[in-house]
Specification:
Blueprint: H1 4-7, H2 23-26, H3 35-57, H4 61-80, H5 84-99, E1 104-107, H6 129-142, H7 147-152, H8 156-171, H9 178-190, H10 195-207, H11 223-226, H12 229-237, H13 244-251, H14 260-282, E2 295-298, H15 311-319, H16 323-327, H17 346-353, H18 360-375, H19 382-392, H20 426-433, E3 438-439, H21 445-456, H22 460-473, E4 478-479, E5 482-483, H23 488-501, E6 504-505, H24 512-517, H25 520-531, H26 538-541, H27 549-582
Parallel strand pairs: 3-6
Antiparallel strand pairs: 1-2, 4-5
Length: 583
């Protein structure tokens, strides 16, 4: 195909198309469960793309623009659509275009995760009925089975809760418009420079007819949204600093004031996408195939052009050999390029085994020992527990607590306010500022947070509570190859350790169990995912090597939900203090 340079020009992420040609609308007829309607939609798309390819070969600039906009989505659907027939038809379409010299996109990385082999991720066409149903539900919602959804597929009970909660947050009833919800999500994901999520949310914003002038960055946002920046960064990195004054500042009367319902909706969105950024990095989620970092172009075998790729395309081709860089937003950070220890090497063995003990059997024995001890012991002494709590965090004992200072991609940096603001070790920060630990005995989710959030943001309470309850009880009574194992002490230690990092104290928990069950390397991984997820590397992930892939994902569910609950508790306590002050 001639005119390749125009086709590969990615200097603009957003193409100026008519409403009918926007990607979300062009593929919207695929959002059906009817096989006949699906077949008609595929035929319509196939015909249109073939016509555009013919016109592009005749140097039609508009056709080139349309192909550049839609072919990445065709690629994604050819590999990640739940319908086998759609995958077959779109795979053939791409093959035919390439045979006739049209440049077609190719995946930069294989599978949804850099850390988890494709063979260990549930297949798009899985035979597990419940997972297949959930994949179909996710696809019908927005014509996508995201990489995060795919990785979660081994745990259908949790995936069901996640899909319902996220769909309601973004597209259900609520005080904020759909466009504002997407932009608040962008602001949240930007705090951790999470390229895959930022790209996806920006695309959602445009597909929802958001004001594209806002895409220039913070200064182009309405002042009302800009006012959310302070509470966004505090909630993401040092939530213990949030007070009723931050709430009052946003709710005070004026042309840019937030209503109570709007603010609660925004706070839940911020906490959700902060936690999702952690999960994305913690599981090594690759960019979506239709996002710029998710695909590259190669010249077709019969192409007349020998050199039609731009520098951007060459860079993306090189990223195929470095998927860590791609998932971090294509050069957002250099930390993701560290190579894991070679399997079987001494380093690999020491990293993994130091995580929770010598091996899975050792972990199982420790859990049994803790349960036996707990059954025969009285309630722990509160003073002793507080002392253990204050000494257990230790975030500053190694090099974890260093923010990423490398340049961010140009689609992230415009939305990043005060990039130097980051997590600080609570035990040190609290000592210096006099901030006391957050005691769940005084304010907890079950007795206080649930009712407040549900009163101000109708129906979100049960959806959040379902996620917390699911992750708390989710177990298959086994770990590794060992069965009939009660893993509740291990799961509780992970959850409470994250709360400890965030300054939240469980009065009835023996914090000595954290050190008994979670080794130094394991805790280092947990701290990174929770506080500095943008720094997580494939080498860090090796501390989980003793666990199966599905168990590693399960661990990241705990990290996600513990952080989400921690942020919500701080925000809702501050809101409650504001309401009390006014009354």
């Amino acid at each position: 195909m001639d005119g390749g340079e125009d086709f590969y020009d990615d200097s603009q992420d957003l193409v100026d198309l008519s409403d009918d040609d926007k990607s979300s609308r062009f593929f919207s007829d695929l959002l059906t469960r009817s096989e006949s309607s699906l077949a008609a939609a595929v035929t319509k798309i196939d015909t249109s793309v073939r016509i555009w390819a013919h016109q592009a070969a005749m140097k039609d600039d508009n056709a080139v623009c349309l192909l550049r906009c839609h072919l990445p989505t065709v690629l994604r659907l050819s590999l990640e659509c739940p319908s086998k027939e759609v995958r077959r038809c779109f795979s053939k379409l791409l093959h035919d275009l390439e045979e006739h010299g049209t440049p077609v996109p190719k995946p930069v990385a294989e599978g949804p995760s850099t850390f988890i082999p494709l063979s260990e991720v549930p297949a798009i066409d899985t035979n597990v009925e419940e997972v297949a149903r959930l994949f179909q539900d996710a696809f019908v919602y927005d014509c996508r089975i995201s990489h995060i959804t795919q990785v979660m597929g081994d745990h259908p009970a949790y995936l069901d809760c996640h899909i319902r909660a996220q769909h309601y947050l973004m597209l259900g009833d609520g005080s904020l418009s759909f466009q504002w919800r997407a932009m608040v999500g962008v602001m949240a994901a930007t705090r951790h420079r999470c390229g895959p999520l930022v790209r996806l949310l920006l695309k959602n914003f445009v597909d929802l007819d958001g004001n594209e002038a806002w895409l220039k960055g913070i200064d182009s946002l309405p002042e009302k949204l800009q006012n959310l920046m302070t509470i966004n960064k505090i909630l993401a990195h040092q939530p213990w600093l949030i007070t009723h004054n931050h709430i009052q500042e946003l709710l005070k009367p004026g042309p840019n004031s937030w209503s109570m319902g709007e603010l609660v909706h925004a706070l839940v969105l911020l906490a959700h996408w902060h936690a999702m950024a952690g999960f994305s990095f913690g599981c090594g989620i690759n960019p979506e195939l239709d996002m710029p970092e998710g695909h590259t172009y190669t010249v077709g075998a019969t192409s007349k052009s020998e050199s039609t790729m731009t520098k951007d395309d060459e860079d993306r081709s090189q990223q195929a050999a470095s998927p860590d860089a791609a998932r971090n937003g294509a050069s957002c950070t250099t930390h993701g390029t560290s190579s894991p220890p070679a399997p079987g090497s001494d380093d690999s063995h020491s990293v993994g085994m130091a995580a929770v003990g010598k091996d899975i059997g050792d972990l199982a024995e420790k859990m049994k020992g803790i349960q036996a001890t707990d059954d025969g012991e009285e309630e722990p002494d509160e003073t002793c527990q507080m002392d253990q709590f204050q000494r257990i965090d230790g975030c500053s004992e190694n090099g974890d607590a260093e923010s990423d200072s490398s340049p961010c991609p140009d689609y992230i940096s415009p939305f990043l306010d005060d990039p130097a603001f980051c997590h600080e070790n609570f035990s040190e920060r609290g000592t210096m500022s006099g901030i006391r630990p957050f005691r769940l005995h005084d304010y907890c989710w079950e007795d206080h947070g649930f009712s407040l959030v549900n009163r101000l943001y109708s129906d979100i309470g049960p959806l959040l509570d379902a996620k917390f309850s699911c992750v708390s009880s989710l177990t298959y009574n086994k770990v590794g190859d060992l069965e009939n194992i009660d893993t509740s002490p291990f799961r509780q230690a992970i959850f409470n350790y994250i709360h400890c990092i965030k300054g939240i104290f469980h009065d009835d928990y023996k914090y000595s169990e954290v050190n008994d069950l979670l080794g130094r390397d394991f805790k280092s991984y947990v701290r990174k995912v929770t506080c500095f997820p943008e720094l997580v590397t494939s080498a860090d992930f090796q501390c989980l090597e003793m666990f199966k892939a599905s168990e590693r994902v399960h661990i990241n569910f705990l990290l996600l939900e513990a952080r989400l609950q921690a942020e919500l508790l701080y925000a809702l306590r501050a809101l409650n203090a504001y309401i009390t002050m006014r009354s």
